[in-house]
Design a protein that fits this description.
heterodimer, A: about 220 residues, MetI-like fold, 9 helices, B: about 280 residues, alpha/beta, D-Maltodextrin-Binding Protein, domain 2, eight-stranded mixed sheet, 13 helices
Chain lengths: ~220, ~280
């Protein structure tokens, strides 16, 4: 796979899994009262700003063969990188999506109720109202994941396949991403390659956000 | 924004996804061997040449982790690598002593060099030994960049300060905690001295203005590389068979010849000298 491919695969998968967790979780939090809700909210808010190197260190300790989950043999694989990014992205998607749900005016919910809607109908109404906020939450999560370097460098190891010094081609990367490649290319003095990788990274971010703003305007 | 632009962007994203995701994933089927090694063997490109041949001969994928020697040994001691190629003999022997590594073999060597600005404000060029060169840098308070990352080169640097009876301290002595390439680039920007292995410096020579200021002290600047396997008795999941093959491969006379020739054409001098030449007394 190419460096760009590994970046997209790892961050895309992590964001998808985080969305599948975070969006239902935000719904649950906003519609239910339960013990420890405040603690959970505090955890989510803290999680939104977790330092990526710390997440990397934590996942590293968990996954090394001498660690508690060493038997899974995940250290220095793309899966380990997905796990680390999932931990970072889930709180972001949950938090932003929760804010979007909370911003839905109570009158809309009440109207749906007055018109005879049951719990499910009300949920659908809220979902429709908050959908742009949710798209934003997923994009914010993806933005963090694709730009992140600290955690995946530690748990992925920036591994390129043999025959790839200073290169950018296909079939090159195992756990090397755009961001980790920028660090190693800069280290070896290949500034032009690092710059080119940076441009690819910016292009990805720009495209994702352009589509998002497009969707929001049309909606 | 109009619809055409949206289409173009969507097309670009689709193309990016295609290039990334729809690839045949053949990587899972093959046997893998994790090599934890130093930045110098990676940055010079030597491993690329050697590993390509090893992969072809043994139908294996070599996953190379380019770390400093300290981190490479730590990775091995956690069982997260199968084989190591490193250059800090005392740390290696201590780790072998702890029972974490076996089958340690001498592969190659080169020499460290003290590089610095052309102006040579500390007059390192006329030093009588490597510790004397360091003493001159300290006396002149000339800027010095330290790796500060527990790598083989960092350990060597600390040893040289000790030998010179100096505790490096002050604004002139700066630790960056990074690999050799980064350290050379930082030293270049700051017009500072630093210690480098010859291989990495030669590989980066054209990208920086720093020059070799001292390389005459063959005793103190000796830089041997050893290969060793992670002990399968401590970590049963390691690929010990492949590690043994890799050790045999690196020490074979065929590969030793490749090491002797490596970089000769591009840099005009060899980056690494094979262990065979020492053993045969060349």
């Amino acid at each position: 796979m190419s460096i760009t491919g590994v970046s997209l695969k790892v961050s895309g998968t992590a964001t998808l899994l985080a969305a599948l967790t975070g969006i239902p979780l935000s719904f649950f939090i906003s519609h239910r009262e339960f013990r420890g809700k405040q603690t959970l909210l505090t955890l989510i808010n803290t999680g939104m700003g977790l330092p990526s190197v710390f997440v990397g260190l934590f996942v590293f300790i968990m996954l090394v063969p001498a660690g508690p989950f060493g038997f899974l043999k995940l250290i220095f694989t793309p899966k380990a990188m997905i796990i680390a990014q999932y931990i970072m992205v889930t709180p972001i998607i949950t938090g932003v999506s929760l804010a979007a749900i909370n911003a839905v005016p109570p009158a809309i919910r009440e109207n749906a109720y007055t018109l005879g809607g049951n719990r499910k109908d009300i949920a659908i109404v809220v979902l429709k109202e908050a959908k742009f906020g949710m798209v934003t939450s997923v994009l914010a999560g993806f933005g963090r994941a694709i730009a992140e370097v600290g955690a995946i460098l530690i748990v992925g190891g920036n591994i390129a396949y043999t025959g790839s010094v200073g290169g950018m081609g296909e079939g090159l990367s195992y756990t090397r991403t755009l961001t980790t490649a920028i660090t190693s290319e800069t280290s070896s003095g290949d500034i032009s390659v690092a710059l080119a990788l940076g441009l690819i990274l910016i292009t990805i971010n720009l495209s994702v956000n352009a589509v998002a703003s497009m969707l929001q305007r049309r909606g | 924004m109009n619809k055409t632009l949206l289409k173009i962007i969507l097309l670009m994203m689709f193309a990016a996804l295609l290039s990334g995701c729809i690839q045949p994933t053949t990587e899972e089927v093959q046997v893998e061997m994790r090599l934890s090694t130093t930045t110098s063997t990676c940055d010079t490109g030597l491993l690329d040449v050697l590993n390509a041949q090893f992969e072809a001969e043994n139908n294996v994928k070599v996953l190379t982790l380019c770390q400093g020697t300290g981190k490479a040994i730590a990775t091995g001691e956690l069982g997260a690598a199968d084989v190591l190629l490193v250059h800090a003999p005392s740390s290696e022997l201590a780790a072998v002593e702890r029972g974490n590594f076996i089958d340690r073999q001498f592969v190659t060597y080169n020499y460290f060099v003290i590089i610095g600005p052309l102006s040579d404000t500390a007059d390192v060029k006329n030093a009588t030994s490597a510790p004397d060169a360091f003493a001159r840098i300290a006396a002149a308070q000339a800027p010095f960049i330290s790796r500060g990352d527990d790598s083989g080169t960092h350990k060597k640097e600390l040893g040289l300060w000790e030998e010179a009876n100096i505790t490096p301290m002050g604004e002139w002595y700066q630790s960056v905690g990074k690999g050799m390439g980064d350290t050379i680039i930082t030293a270049d920007i700051k017009q500072a001295y630093t210690l480098s292995d010859r291989g990495t410096y030669l590989a980066m020579k054209d990208k920086v203005e720093l020059v070799t200021q001292f390389d005459k002290d063959q005793d103190f600047l000796y830089n041997p590389y050893h290969v060793m396997a992670v002990n399968p008795e401590k970590f049963p999941d390691v690929n010990y068979d492949m590690a043994v093959k890799y050790i045999e491969f690196l020490t074979s006379s065929e590969v030793q010849d490749i090491i002797r020739e490596f970089g000769l054409e591009e840099y005009g001098e060899p980056l690494f000298i094979p262990a065979d030449d020492v053993i045969n007394g060349v």
